[in-house]
Amino acid sequence: MTPELFITRHNHLIDPFVHVWSWQIPVYLFLGGWVAGNMILTGYFMLGGRHTRRSPLLSALPGLSLVLLSLGMLALFLDLEHKAYVWRLYTTFQWTSPMSWGSWILLLVYPALVVTWLVRPPVLLEDLSQTVERITSTLQARRDIVRTIGITSIVLGVALGVYTGVLLSSLVARPLWNTGILGVLFLASGVSAAAAFGHLVTQRPDERALTVRIDNVVLASELGILALFLVAMLNGNAQQVDAAGLVLGGPFTAPFWVFVVGLGIVIPLIIQLLAVRHWIQHTPIAPIMVMAGGLALRWVLVLAGQVSRWAPGTMGMQ
Amino acid sequence: MARYGMAIDTRLCVGCMDCVVACKTENRVPEGFDRDWIAYETAGTFPALRQEIRSERCNHCDNPPCVACCPTGASHVDEFGQIVLVTRNECIGCKACLASCPYDARFVHPQGYADKCTFCVHRVKEGLDPACVSVCPTHCFTFGDLDDPDSAISRKLASRRSHPLLPAAGTRPRIFYLD
After folding, report:
1. Residue A314's pLDDT is what?
2. Do A100 and B71 touch (CB under 8 A)?
């Protein structure tokens, strides 16, 4: 029989269960993942030679990513309780801390995004500045440099996307998060959000066809990763089995299966598969659902993970 | 170098909360927060019930997840007694350490930094026991150097069965509850 535990403490943000992270962290993780996906797509486009011709999507993604990343970091900053000391992140590197890795990765991502943007900037920017035009011409003339920038963009994108998951999965005290699968899951979700955004905004049929195909593959993979996540939890220790119960009959069951799996992955995947086969027309609803589903995934997992904990029955009484 | 730890006799602890009051007074813990607390764990089926009363706090783990996850190094294992401490003006208040602690021993101080039990390091440096230890009316606490085989705590742990909290979490806590 499960022991009953009563404690006299009622610390703010801790009791009756940990609720230290609110809306800021899911928003930060979603925007970070989306930027990671944008970087991977941008790198993929550049390696495929798309930078040699006008590509509205390739021109837009790095600039948009700069804005999204800044918004994400603003959300993270708003979450800090000791804001005046935020600069302490950059006076040290703590190799065991995913958050320290992330703060330095973010510092590398900014210049990488700017350089990527200069390979194929928006027409307006090129027209406005001769310097930009000169840099772009120089970069485009050097295939090896563009290739290096593309590979760097992909590598940093993967690092950023995985980091958003590892940030949570490294916390052993929260059984729902404590699995390496979370890094891969958040990376896949980030790429999916980026591809969905490309599908949503591009006016070019070839770009739309490419992004929707990428999104379909990633969405299908995401379903598989989610299944693996749950299977791993159910085959884990007692705490992880309890944690899986939060989305398998527990209080987070409805939001997880309805908003994350149903409306965020399965239904848009079906719509997009039908559109690819030309049975129906492309619709903006599907990519919007995918992006909202990506945000819902972080939201549900961040909240549910904080509720998951080591059971009182393991406190020591034999 | 010392490695401080604590043994708490669950046969003596009556849950009077003197340790809680002493800690709040000694460390000026803000209203509404606790660095230590009392846990009552009841197991079994009526009428065969067993209850353990424990005074709990930060376990000053040998493998502290709060130190590993800290992005600035504010959470650290101090050279003095290998006590886990927080440097206030290095803490950014990211709360990763709160989420990483399986004992939920930390909280955010109203001034914004992560706070928790310090084993009353300021008293220990003066040769005194932590406040909770010194006020306990049943003398259920034994505080001292776990690496010194002749210390009172080492002798106590060698002579009695004991258990730490959540050993499966892999944190290697340094607070032991005597059965």
Report:
1. 47
2. yes
The HSE-up count of residue B66 (CA atoms within 13 Å, CB side) is 32
Residue-wise pLDDT for A57-104, tens only, equals: 888 899 999 999 999 999 999 999 999 999 999 999 999 999 999 999
Number of residues assigned to chain A: 318
Rounded alpha-carbon distances, angstroms, from residue A11 to A30, A134, A171, A307: 29, 59, 20, 15
Which pair of tokens denotes residue A68? 């999204």
- The verdict on B73 touching A (C-beta cutoff 8 Å) is yes
- Dihedral sign, CA of B108, B109, B113, B117? negative
Task: Quote the radius of gyration of chain A (alpha carbons, Å).
Answer: 21
Number of domains in chain A: 1
User: Is the backbone of residue B166 left (phi > 0), alpha (psi -120 to 50) or beta?
Assistant: left
Which CATH number do you get for residue A287?
A: 1.20.1630.10
For residue A16, being part of any structural domain is answered with no
| CATH for B122 | 3.30.70.20
Tens digit of pLDDT for each residue in B127-167? 999 999 999 999 999 999 999 999 999 999 999 999 999 99
* A310 reaches B (C-beta below 8 A): yes
Buried b (16+ CB within 10 A) or exposed e, B126-136: eeebbbbbebb
How far apart, in whole angstroms, are the C-alpha atoms of residue B54 and residue B43? Answer: 14
pTM over 0.90: yes
**Considering its fold, how many domains does chain B have in total?**
1
Q: Do B98 and A9 touch (CB under 8 A)?
A: no
Domain that includes residue B23, residue range: 4-178
76-135 of A, contacting B, C-beta below 8 A: 79-83, 85-86, 88-89, 91-92, 94, 96-100, 102-103
Helices (H) and strands (E) in chain A, counts: 12, 1
How many CB atoms within 10 Å of residue B117?
A: 26
**What does the pLDDT read at residue B50?**
87
